[in-house]
Amino acid sequence: MNAPVSRLTSKAQTVIPKTVREKLGLKPGDLLRYIEENNRIVIEKVRGEAEDDPFATFTEWSSEADERAYKNL
């Protein structure tokens, strides 16, 4: 099997291989969903808004001052 791979950094980040980004039609800012299926994780592009975004309900924390204060976290 010649599947694309990527390495996890010390900050738990990775680069999604170009072939995978192209197949999913991913662009910067897109949301990804991680689904557990039979001891595997399936990654899919979220179409529309993420319905289970825990921060979507906390609009009081989305001011410009909040964005500046927390942008480097």
Give a written overview of the molecule.
The chain has a two-stranded antiparallel ribbon with strand order 1-2. The longest helix has 7 residues, at 18-24. The protein has one domain (18-70). Strand 1 and strand 2 form a beta hairpin. The chain contains two helices and two strands; from the N terminus they run αββα. With 73 residues, it is an alpha+beta fold.
List the helices and strands and how they pair.
Blueprint: H1 18-24, E1 32-37, E2 40-45, H2 64-70
Antiparallel strand pairs: 1-2
Keywords, separated by commas or semicolons:
single chain; 73 residues; alpha+beta; two-stranded antiparallel ribbon; 2 helices; 19% helix; elongated
Quick overview:
The protein is an alpha+beta fold and 73 residues long. The protein has helices spanning 18-24, 64-70; strands at 32-37, 40-45.
Query: Biggest sheet: strands side by side, in what order?
Result: 1-2
Query: What's the order of the H and E elements?
Result: HEEH
User: Helix/strand/pairing class, anyone?
Assistant: alpha+beta
Uncertain residue ranges: none
Radius of gyration: 16 Å
